[in-house]
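Is this the right way to post structure tokens for a design question? Let me know if I should format differently. Anyway, here goes:
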């Protein structure tokens, strides 16, 4: 079974439109797919219109707020995938709208602080590395690319903005609850990789299991065991752990269409005792 339940379009941080993503999915021979743009549902309708013979699940990837999890020594952010939900449900749309307004306020505050240092960088004029999602690294890259006053102070202000920015994001428990209220399933994305101040942090298996201990009581339905960047050994462990813990597993490439993120599709064969998220949603 050829699937890909983790793909991004130009509605978030991908290079291709939702229709182009689905065209690529058809060319790759995918049977089941999900467009999982970051913190937005804007591409779902267009993807649905262009899916052709590909079974399309409604999808989303929530960038969760950092929090200090039991047994961890620093606050960490997970990414949360949602599948099979009603994209018009107010519990989910309202939460995303509130989050996106709060994030926009943070960007405006950063721009005001940079203005006081002599840098005129309105958020809408900062070039994005990929798609339409603005990131702290975009501000940093733009600052370093042009001459200006107080560069170190400006870079320090960008670094400090990580704290209010993560506070604007959705806590994991709230994201799980909203996905469930909208009738969907909540899956932990690439569970051996989390984030600290918007930089990727690797987890060992013990740490991932410990974090799962905290997420399951919140209602987490499963995790992304088949992730294209993980080697075979890590994938096998994640699938075995999902069976042992009685949770679903998912599979995705994290396709963005840009170099290093331009591979789509995974071949999935189910083992006895496994529960695949797409099977649960397409019965």
């Amino acid at each position: 079974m050829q699937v890909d339940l983790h793909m991004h379009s130009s509605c978030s941080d991908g290079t291709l439109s939702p229709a182009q993503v689905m065209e690529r999915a058809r060319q790759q021979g995918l049977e089941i797919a999900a467009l999982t743009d970051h913190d937005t549902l804007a591409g779902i309708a267009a993807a649905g219109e262009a899916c052709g013979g590909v079974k399309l699940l409604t999808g989303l990837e929530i960038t969760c707020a950092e929090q200090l999890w039991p047994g961890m020594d620093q606050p960490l952010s997970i990414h949360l995938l949602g599948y099979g939900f009603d994209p018009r449900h107010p519990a989910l749309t309202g939460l995303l709208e509130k989050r996106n307004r709060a994030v926009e306020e943070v960007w405006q505050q950063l721009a005001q602080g940079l203005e006081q240092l002599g840098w005129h960088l309105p958020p809408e004029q900062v070039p994005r590395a990929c798609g339409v999602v603005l990131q702290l690294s975009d501000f940093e890259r733009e600052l370093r690319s042009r001459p200006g006053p107080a560069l170190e102070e400006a870079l320090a202000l960008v670094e400090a903005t990580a704290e209010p920015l993560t506070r604007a994001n959705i806590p994991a428990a709230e994201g799980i609850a909203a996905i469930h209220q909208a009738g969907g399933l909540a899956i932990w994305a690439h569970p051996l990789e989390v984030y600290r101040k918007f930089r990727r942090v690797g987890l060992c298996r013990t740490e991932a299991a410990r974090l799962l201990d905290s997420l399951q009581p919140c209602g987490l339905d499963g995790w992304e065991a088949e992730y294209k960047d993980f080697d075979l050994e890590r994938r096998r462990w994640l699938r075995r752990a999902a069976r042992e813990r009685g949770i679903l597993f998912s599979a995705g490439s994290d396709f963005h269409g840009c170099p290093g993120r331009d591979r789509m599709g995974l071949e999935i064969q189910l083992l006895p005792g496994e529960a695949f998220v797409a099977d649960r949603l397409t019965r």
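Format looks fine. Someone answered above. Worth noting: The first strand starts at residue 2 and ends at 7. The CA atoms of residues 47 and 172 lie 26 Å apart.
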